[in-house]
Hints:
Number of strands: 18
Helix content: 25-40%
Shape: globular
CATH class of the largest domain: Mainly Beta
Low-confidence stretches: none
Amino acid sequence: MSAVGVIVNGAAGARDVLATGRRVHELLQAAGHTVVDYSAPTLAQATDRARAVATAGLAGLVVVGGDGAVHLGVNVVAGTHLPLGIVPAGTGNDIARALRVPSHVDRAVADIVAALATRPRSLDAVRVGRPDAAAYEWFLGVLSCGIDAAVNATANAYRWPSGHLKYLRGVAAELPRFRPYGYRVRMDDDVWESAGSLVAIANIPWFGGGLKIAPDADPEDGLLDVVVAGPLTRHGILAIFPKVYSGAHVGHPAVQVFRSRAVTIEPVAALGAHPPVAFADGERIGPLPLRLEVVPGALDVLH
């Protein structure tokens, strides 16, 4: 009988997430696994618990929640041989969408149980940190430091409405005060230096609860898709925003897509306003400058 760690993101006290977590426990136990619960009142505390308790001997770590819970799990297991399982129970679930994780809890757990008996799938993960520091953290999805990151920060402060409506409220708040940001983006073979409205570094296609920011991003190709948009006006942002749901925005003349293994993003005051604090997987990373590097096969997943 193997032991499986479980982290349930019940920080917000959402009854459906907690109920999903209980069901995950039941299903894993019914499959013959011992469940070790690392859940805590906050995701940060859950991370500390999972890191403080030696994970040696676990067959896998399962996170129950949205992209924030996955981000926590990635930062516990990336660079190790401990595989990560995901049971989507958030509002966005972009990473689960990219990995084609079933939305129904029973099916998601059934896939995890089956994968525990075979070999996990290896994915690329991304290290991000300040260029002048050795410290870094991991992410699996998309990092952004443009208008959408400003919206993300604003929306996180709202208690209502829920889901994507909170994001739209953030758009309404941020757009009137938007002015183009100044960027220098250094890649393997290119440098993009411009006033701009968006810089997104993508390991998967989706972010923001279903926005297809990088249609061709693949977490198994060893490369990052770097999506940049020049200095759009407020009207231009409103016009292009609906196209992001389908990925059609990449055909807009102001948008370019590069591919690179490593990326350094710096603010350039002479070109525009200081870019917003960066977010990845919906979680706050920090202010620019930042350096990112994709690490092929750094993450094993049970999907």
